[in-house]
Design goal:
Layout (H helix, E strand, L loop, with lengths): L9 H12 L5 E10 L3 E2 L2 E2 L6 E10 L3 E9 L9 E13 L2 E11 L8 E10 L2 E11 L13 E11 L2 E11 L8 E10 L2 E8 L14 E11 L1
Antiparallel strand pairs: 1-4, 1-14, 2-3, 4-5, 5-6, 6-7, 7-8, 8-9, 9-10, 10-11, 11-12, 12-13, 13-14
Length: 230
C-alpha cells in the first residue's frame, strides 16, 4: 500500500463547527454520508480512480471539544478490497475572528493493518484563509522503514469563500516523507460546492515510475454529501 493518502476535512470541519456553536452544557451528535466519483486524499487517489462511498459520525460538546469516526472504501492495488476507518478527537475555538483546531487522528485499515498510522494536527484560520500542519507520530511496520522513521510532515493552505450561494476553495499541500525524501511531493487544486453537490480538480507533482505513470494526472471528482443530526 502507498504511504501517501487526500486531505479529508469534511467530518473534521463539521465537528469543529458544531463544537464551536455548542454551549458548555450541551452536546450534539451529527452524521454525514456521501458518494464520490473518486477518493482524493492529499492529491492522491485512494481508490485507483474508482468511486467511493463515505460516511461518519461526530460528537461535539462545550467548550469546543469534539470526537468522531469516518469510513470509506479504498483500493490501493486494483483488487477492489479494503476500507479506511478514521478516529479523531480535538479541541477548537475562535477569538477575534481567528479560529484554531488542535487534535489527533488515526487512520486504520482493518484489511491491511500494516498501513495504519496516526497524526497530530494544528490548524488556524482567519478571513477565509486556513493553514495547518499534520505530524506523523506512529506508523505500522508496513509503511515504515527499518529505522522506524515516523516523522512525516504535511503542510496545507487554503482560501475558502462563498459567492452567490456557491462555496469555493483553492488549496495547496506539501507532504514530506521522512523515510524516503524522494517520495516528497506537492499537490494543489480547487473545488466548488452547492447544496451538497461538489466538483473538484486536483493535481500533484509525483514522479512517474516504471509501474505507474498516472500518479500525477489531473483528476476531476464529483460528489454529493449530506449532513444530519442524530
Amino acid at each position: 500500500m502507498t504511504n501517501i493518502k487526500a486531505l479529508r476535512a469534511v467530518s473534521l470541519g463539521a465537528a469543529v463547527a458544531a463544537a464551536l456553536s455548542s454551549g458548555v452544557a450541551t452536546a450534539e451528535v451529527t452524521a454525514n454520508a456521501g458518494i464520490f466519483s473518486n477518493y482524493i486524499w492529499r492529491g492522491v487517489t485512494q481508490t485507483s480512480d474508482q468511486a467511493a462511498g463515505q460516511g461518519g459520525i461526530d460528537w461535539s460538546g462545550g467548550p469546543g471539544f469534539y470526537a468522531g469516526t469516518w469510513l470509506s472504501n479504498v483500493d490501493f492495488d486494483g483488487t477492489g478490497s479494503g476500507y479506511e476507518m478514521d478516529v479523531y478527537g480535538g479541541w477548537g475555538g475562535e477569538a477575534g475572528g481567528f479560529g484554531w483546531d488542535l487534535g489527533v487522528i488515526t487512520y486504520q485499515y482493518p484489511v491491511d493493518p500494516g498501513s495504519n498510522f496516526t497524526e497530530v494536527y494544528a490548524t488556524g484560520s482567519i478571513v477565509g484563509l486556513t493553514a495547518g500542519v499534520w505530524y506523523t507520530v506512529d506508523k505500522a511496520s508496513g509503511i515504515t522503514d527499518p529505522n522506524g522513521k515516523d516523522d512525516d510532515i504535511y503542510l496545507y493552505g487554503a482560501y475558502d469563500f462563498t459567492a452567490k450561494d456557491i462555496d469555493y476553495s483553492i488549496y495547496i499541500g506539501n507532504y514530506s516523507i521522512d523515510a524516503d525524501p524522494n517520495a516528497d511531493y506537492t499537490h494543489y487544486g480547487a473545488s466548488i460546492g452547492k447544496g451538497g453537490f461538489s466538483f473538484a480538480v486536483d493535481k500533484n507533482d509525483i514522479d512517474d515510475t516504471p509501474t505507474d505513470n498516472t500518479a500525477d494526472n489531473v483528476r476531476f471528482t464529483v460528489g454529493y454529501s449530506v449532513d444530519f443530526e442524530l
